[in-house]
Amino acid sequence: MPLRTGAWIRWMVCVFTVGVFATAVDAGTFEVDSRRGVAVIKRKIRAAQFLSRATFGPNLEQIEALADRMAQIGTRRACEEWIDQQMAMPAAYHHPLALDMIARDGLNSTQGDAYIQRYRYHAWWHCALAGEDQLRQRVAWALIQILVTSQDGAGFNDQNPGHYSGEGRWLGPTHYYDLMVRHAFGNYRELLEDVTYHPVMGVYLSHMRNRKTDESANRFPDENYAREIMQLFTIGLYELHQDGRLKTDESGNLIPTYDNETIKEFAKVFTGLAFKPHPNANGTGRFWWGNEFEEPMEMFDFEHEPGLKTLLGGEVIGSETSVDGDADIAAALDNLLAHDNVAPFISRRLIQRLVKSNPSRGYIRRVARKFNNNGQGVKGDLAAVVKAVLLDPEAWSGQRLLGRSRPNRVEVIARGTDYSTLSEPVIRYTRLLRGVNATSNHHSGRAMLMSQNYNWTQEPYLSPTVFNFYLPDYQPPGKLLGYTPSRRIPNGFLAAPEFQIKTPVTSNRLAGRYIWDISNQMSQQRWSNSTSGVSHNSDMIFHLEEEESLCTEDGDMHQLMDHFDLVFCYGSMPQDYKDRVVEVTTAETEWMKTNSTWRPRMEEFRVNAALMATVLSPFAAVTQ
């Protein structure tokens, strides 16, 4: 175990404050032996930059493999090839994985004394950290923050079995999450239909057992899902140009995409859906007797609103002579997806979740063009959209890479606010664990992490509202002094969504978690129930042997900092910061060289200090 002394604490404080005066646009430097080395480093930085968006975090081996392929066929072609290979991989689903984890531990999903719901987190973290289909998992994480549900819904933590699956109903949110995994490279229209019919969404946004109008009982269709499918899942509040700019009327006013009457008409569409009924149910009881979260909701036309419905653009659907609820829903989804807003609205949100907070008008327009037409006349092809997001020239423009000579080196200049994003806490933690090649000591070998929500107020399945963990247009309070947003950004508006959950409390807890984990070179995952005797003990062990080999000689630590810069900061760490970390760390551990008791620990202490100074720096938190 590491030192627990006042000297250790003072050392850590010194290391963490070495970069107080460094700025986000200072140049980082990678010195090399030759001009060829300049090209090699440039490719590695580009590979790291790309993989930081397309995965839950790269390690050095993955960065070097992609950089080598870039040398063979070019940067863009290598990245496109990597995307194609990822899209061809089998999907890793969370729901069956959770069931297998439960069975391997000798438990069952309806058990009431084992905090059985923790397996939804175990499954998610394993897929994020160890899943080979990294791109699919990362896109699913982006989609679940658009098509939001939360485990904080009626029955979503219920251990009672569903009528058909026989599994604890708490697995329903995991089953819903797998829609994002399944459709990550599919069609957005098909994803939206599966979302609409999924009982978890039906309960969460209350169109489950949404009934037709009965004026005598003063009952009218619930409007919740009708409102949110427009505001959050498809078209937004105001009409947009294809480049994300807000449209205005002749008086300069914003143009709403819908009004209250539109909500009422869509609410009529989403009536008549209920749980797949109990096998023994009959007659009208079929509408009321059911509890299954893993089977799509069924349409019961006797509770579906009859008649005509007037939707967006004045389109009229339905019939005055017959009732077909499924046909009404299909027509309504087609009506929504035909709206011009869908492409720029969804494109901007995917760019925000994968690349940067403030994409330019050109970036949004180029991705929206792919959303509208994948090149084969298909609208909503998410595979084409994801590729457009990750391969767009603007995705690479946050850093300028300058080759220099005498000495040969690469200087990395971060271009600043317009090009950056604050990394969300969950992603920062997966990047840490993947970057240090952490492996599980659980008997299954799987990454069995517990919920980390306490540490930073973000965790899969725990969005506090339907608006996600943070608003896409959130701005930190106060004026932005000394900086004018680029005119290339739509509407002159600079957003910083992730700052909504970055508070003094969450910042301190995140730092505390990092310091504890790195000090122990493991992420401890422990839980126990003293009453039942059920316990969970699983640690993610860090593997820093190669990094420690660079800590014996003082001069080698510059190579260590370049390594950490590449893996965790993607080349953006300023050179004076790296130099100061080396200076402080070597000076504070100099005494260990001649101390027989502590000499065997010197490399460990040095690598821990350097890693802390890296991952807790703004250069790891803010990506370019």
UniProtKB/TrEMBL annotation:
<dbReference type="Pfam" id="PF08811">
    <property type="entry name" value="DUF1800"/>
</dbReference>
<protein>
    <recommendedName>
        <fullName>DUF1800 domain-containing protein</fullName>
    </recommendedName>
</protein>
<dbReference type="InterPro" id="IPR014917">
    <property type="entry name" value="DUF1800"/>
</dbReference>
